[in-house]
Design goal:
four-stranded antiparallel β-sheet; alpha+beta; 185 residues; globular; 29% helix; Glycoprotein, Type 4 Pilin; 26% strand; Dna Ligase, domain 1; 2 domains
């Protein structure tokens, strides 16, 4: 899947409009995937929306796949990142001026039995063991200077598992790639 700079701009504007609309009066927007004739906006893909306030994480929610168009998923995940991330209080209207939006459009998950195949900076990781699940996007490793093992350890900890749980044969490891873009803050 390819996204043009125009597509990325439309997705970022849609995310911000969705948050603004929801915070103003609780309404959700239903963006038209064909609003500009770009087929990419109607593509079915997973995506995460990450919010930062003055450079610090303020919310992040996403899905690995969607049955609906990408532009609709972005609107939904933007609102969820603003008001449904249990790690943070809801974003307030007066905070919006300080909020930067980052979008990660995902490739499909690929299961791997070889953790050495994960490339830091290229892959994100999704780990499952029993009822525990954790995900870290590709940019988390590079932003934090993680090597592969630290990235795997941190993903396990995000899932509530021991850091080395990724070495357990019962742990499922999935990787994915992402097209990452955002507002300049």
């Amino acid at each position: 899947m390819k996204l043009t700079e125009e597509d990325k701009g439309i997705l970022l504007k849609t995310a911000r409009l969705a948050i603004e609309s929801y915070l103003a009066d609780g309404t959700t927007i239903e963006p038209d995937p064909l609003c500009d004739g770009s087929p990419a906006l109607g593509f079915k893909a997973g995506a995460f929306v990450t919010l930062h306030k003055k450079g610090r994480l303020r919310g992040c929610i996403g899905q690995f796949s969607s049955e609906g168009p990408l532009i609709g998923l972005i609107a939904e995940m933007a609102v969820s990142a603003a008001v449904r991330d249990p790690r943070f209080p809801d974003v307030r209207v007066e905070e919006l001026i300080d909020i930067d939006i980052e979008i990660s459009v995902l490739t499909p998950l690929e299961r791997t039995d070889d953790p050495a195949s994960i490339e830091v900076g290229r892959h994100g990781i999704y780990i499952i063991k029993g009822f525990s699940r954790g995900v870290l996007l590709p940019q988390v490793a590079t932003e934090n200077g993680f090597d592969r093992e630290t990235f795997l350890d941190q993903t396990c900890m995000k899932a509530g598992l021991a850091p080395t749980a990724w070495r357990d044969p019962e742990t499922e490891i999935y990787s994915f790639e992402a097209i990452i873009f955002g507002e300049k803050g």
